[in-house]
Fold this protein.
Amino acid sequence: ESVTVQRDTGIFRLSGATILFHPRLLVSGMRSAFPFKGTASLAEGEEVVVTARLPVGSTLFLLFWVILWLLAIFLFGGGSEPDILLTIGIFGIVGVAVLAGISYAIEQKRFADELRELQQLLDDPEIVKTYAFPQKKRR
């Protein structure tokens, strides 16, 4: 049996020895195209291991965007001045790097908020006993 719990910044699906969580999309504040998704699982003893993942779709889109940007510059820019091509190429790569850096900073903060909410869920004895890690006794 599993249950879904919505909190201020995250949605948590509790199912036995695993908790899947991701950010809520309709919350106020800054967002990016790269929301971390997390998995919490029970390790040895009382330790909970949390793993964060980037979304595959957004990451592949960004990768292909950079590749196609560079490919288009080299294929269609043959008659242009090399300085113009270099400027356009640098502009595209720097733009993507800035987007990725800003997105990472935003999502890192959101993920930290989700971890705090996960800790609050794990501190609730009724939720833990019923849905999360029921096979282990928690202190």
